[in-house]
Amino acid sequence: NAGVTQTPKFRILKIGQSMTLQCAQDMNHNYMYWYRQDPGMGLKLIYYSVGAGITDKGEVPNGYNVSRSTTEDFPLRLELAAPSQTSVYFCASSPAGHRGPDGYTFGSGTRLTVV
Amino acid sequence: KQEVTQIPAALSVPEGENLVLNCSFTDSAIYNLQWFRQDPGKGLTSLLLIQSSQREQTSGRLNASLDKSSGRSTLYIAASQPGDSATYLCAVSPDGSSNTGKLIFGQGTTLQVKP
């Protein structure tokens, strides 16, 4: 099925370890986003991309990095994991940002625990 | 800074009731407002998107209204069913000179519909 695919679904990291959360979409959407959701809270934007080769910081970018070498993929990198990064991470895509009539497609999330 | 607030945080109703979920935002300069549904352990599903020039949108038993000047939106669910049990998130796309499609989320309202 077409959509946004995130891997892995679950991960436990030790403090100081690194990992990459993968996100891929097959809808040829230009806009892609990474959000994190802490318990009982809404989603906060980490990084976003409006097209291949273009990325920018969101509201909570510290401790993360991204790249966008292709339209399909938008990986999120955690370099030195900290307990504060324990969260559920969602990747999303949109065909035309807020100017399009269509909404956003979200992945099913990656639940990350840092111990 | 745009802030989005949802009240109540949780709501429990008997099956068949009509109900209203509330969303307020502090800055009326928005492109659009969206309502999402989130099931436990799952990603977000877009329910309704209201452009800033619109007053309401309807889909089946759902009706969302937007009053941009007062910074309010409501999601009306008619004849609630146990299958409507989920967390409902409101998000606004801030106005600005560039189309980034960033979303600012409220904390969500967790709805339980009892049989």
Structural description of this entry:
Chain A is mainly beta. Helices cover 0% and strands 49% of the residues of chain A. Chain A is built from no helices and eleven strands. Chain A starts with a strand and ends with a strand. By secondary structure, chain B is mainly β. In chain B, the strands form two sheets. In chain B, strands 2, 4, 5, 9, 10 and 11 form a six-stranded mixed beta sheet that branches. In chain B, a hairpin with a 4-residue loop joins strand 7 and strand 8. The radius of gyration of chain B is 14 Å and the shape is globular. The A-B interface holds A 4, 31, 33, 35, 40-45, 48, 50, 56, 58, 90, 92, 94, 96-99, 101-109 and B 4, 6, 9, 31-32, 34, 36, 41-46, 49, 51, 89, 91, 93, 99-108.
Describe what is shown at a glance.
The complex is a heterodimer of chains A (115) and B (115). Chain A is mainly beta. Chain A has no helices and eleven strands.
What's the structural blueprint in terms of helices and strands?
The complex is a heterodimer of chains A (115) and B (115).
Chain A: E1 4-7, E2 10-13, E3 19-25, E4 31-37, E5 43-51, E6 54-57, E7 64-66, E8 76-78, E9 87-94, E10 105-106, E11 110-114
Parallel strand pairs in A: 2-11
Antiparallel strand pairs in A: 1-3, 3-8, 4-5, 4-9, 5-6, 7-8, 9-10, 9-11
Chain B: E1 4-7, E2 10-14, E3 19-25, E4 30-38, E5 44-51, E6 56-59, E7 62-67, E8 72-77, E9 86-94, E10 104-105, E11 109-114
Parallel strand pairs in B: 2-11
Antiparallel strand pairs in B: 1-3, 3-8, 4-5, 4-9, 6-7, 7-8, 9-10, 9-11
